[in-house]
Specification:
The protein is of the alpha+beta class. The chain is built from four helices and four strands; from the N terminus they run αββααββα. Helix 3 runs antiparallel to helix 4. The longest helix has 29 residues. The relative contact order is 0.18.
């Protein structure tokens, strides 16, 4: 069995742990500072372009699949199992870029899964879709970007950013890095290195 570089293991675990920790810490801060959605006005860093607005998302990215929290919890757990398999049996830990990308994706999954499981212990207030006082099983979002008349981007969080950047790196690896490895000639008398 090929030796797994310790630096790649450290890269993956650091990105996963740091990503999830920063996500959860910033969500805690945002909801403490601004309260539940609509309790306080948005706090704009750049006037009406980028700022902080709390929101609760019971769906996935861009609000897809609202109210299907259990489905997304199951998909998150399946994705974590797939990543564990890819890292070990699929030898992703032999490639620094895959280690980085999968660490980011894992951190994002863990940050949002924490919310979906209701671990922040939030309860719904007055709202037309939920009984007041019922537990919240939704992702806490707080980063808001918009340009009036052009775009009002769905409110997101650090975990969402990690998921998107990690996914982009995986696509880039598949399209740009893997073909380069495939084109490299094998060393004489040895198998080609596993990416």
């Amino acid at each position: 069995m090929a030796h797994v570089p310790r630096a790649h293991v450290l890269l993956f675990t650091t990105m996963a742990a740091l990503g999830a920790s920063v996500d959860l810490a910033t969500k805690w801060w945002a909801f403490r500072a601004l309260g539940m959605p609509h309790e306080k006005p948005s706090h704009w860093i750049f006037d009406e372009i980028f700022g902080f607005t709390t929101s609760l998302n019971e769906g996935a990215l861009f609000g897809i699949g609202q109210g299907r929290g259990l489905v997304f919890c199951g998909l998150s757990l399946a994705a974590l199992c797939g990543i564990a398999y890819w890292l070990t049996r699929g030898k992703a830990l032999h490639d620094w870029l895959l280690s980085l990308a999968l660490g980011m994706v894992t951190g994002g999954i863990l940050g949002n899964l924490y919310d979906r499981l209701g671990l922040p212990k939030l309860t719904w207030g007055t709202d037309m879709f939920h009984q007041p006082g019922t537990p919240v099983y939704a992702v806490r979002d707080w980063l808001h970007f918009k340009v009036d008349g052009v775009v009002d981007w769905p409110i997101f969080n650090i975990a969402d950013s990690l998921l998107v950047v990690g996914a982009v790196l995986l696509v880039w690896h598949a399209l740009a890095v893997e073909p380069e490895h495939a084109a490299e000639p094998a060393s004489s008398g040895q198998d080609a290195p596993i990416a």
